[in-house]
Fold each of these.
Amino acid sequence: QVQLVQSGAEVKKPGASVKVSCKASGYTFTSYDINWVRQATGQGLEWMGWMNPNSGNTGYAQKFQGRVTMTRNTSISTAYMELSSLRSEDTAVYYCARVPSISSNWFDPWGQGTLVTVSS
Amino acid sequence: SYVLTQPPSVSVAPGQTARITCGGNNIGSKSVHWYQQKPGQAPVLVVYDDSDRPSGIPERFSGSNSGNTATLTISRVEAGDEADYYCQVWDSSSDHPVFGTGTKVTVL
């Protein structure tokens, strides 16, 4: 079955960077876009950006421009999201999610989430 | 940017029908998708393209969309339906997805 498995929880200090991985299985990794969405505790869902695993093309939400980088390693079917210059407000669960077809704009499935805690 | 507004909470008795609204300017012209998120879990798609259900989602979940309001309807509500629900559309003007504010469904 289609599955996205993310890396484990991280604790970072303000100003540091974090890199979260998302390993895909059950489908051809390069065929479908991967998006990243985050959720602060008790808050709603916030879209961060997308990446085309085939071309490596990316698009980022304006809020994260200059701080986020989305990359991939096709040989191991893994997408990455790196967020730099971390601040306390970046404490959240970060999810990767697949766009299930070229003509769709919804997300299915989602990874299990990675908690990133930013604290001094 | 495009804004989607949901009621913060909806309460429903078991066996009854829950209706969750998602308001947006002329949302009827867009495709609306709905996600269910249980505590400590990732969101799960329950309805896409206004009213289609992914495989494995019970027929009790249905959707509609017209004018300025989209609605997710949960029929014959069960205790296991207690969760947060989010609507989502693609905002063509900014070329990115937008999520609703989320609705917590409580089963009495």
Amino acid sequence: EAGVAQSPRYKIIEKRQSVAFWCNPISGHATLYWYQQILGQGPKLLIQFQNNGVVDDSQLPKDRFSAERLKGVDSTLKIQPAKLEDSAVYLCASSLMGTETTEAFFGQGTRLTVV
Amino acid sequence: AQKITQTQPGMFVQEKEAVTLDCTYDTSDPSYGLFWYKQPSSGEMIFLIYQGSYDQQNATEGRYSLNFQKARKSANLVISASQLGDSAMYFCAMGGGSQGNLIFGKGTKLSVKP
């Protein structure tokens, strides 16, 4: 079974530029998450999708971050314009169901550096 | 609000010995799940073990076991017979709330010495 795929693995951009990350979850997984992991911290949830609907985006900085999951499969996360503090690893994860008892499977992440 | 606390920023263990990584949690939800993930330097989060709040027995997965003490709200990870490949960051996480998403602690960096 293929895991969660993310691209690119690394990205360096200048502040005020835009960037997009792509995620392909495990086949059949209804729930998709985007997490932000700043160096030295645990991952923080940015947005959670159930199929193609948003169920939690309370911690997404909506003035600069956007995400979509068309057709309930692949997802993209965009930052526009980027700030220095957006430097982090962006992790995509998926699970069969978005319940408290189902484990999430993570991709390898995209390491973003904003200079 | 839900919260996960990992008080050990770093731990050292001798190869082949056992080590316990601490995790305490806070939640008002009656149903929740507790998870441990391993994050090697490559960056991927690897699922290790799961404990449900209603499970009567402690979870075990190979060399990993979870010491679940519900009254104390703790969910410590025990790794037996440590190996050099166990050197990594370890995160405790809780699934709960209406959406079931995971809330993570700050992690513990485990270093296994030969």
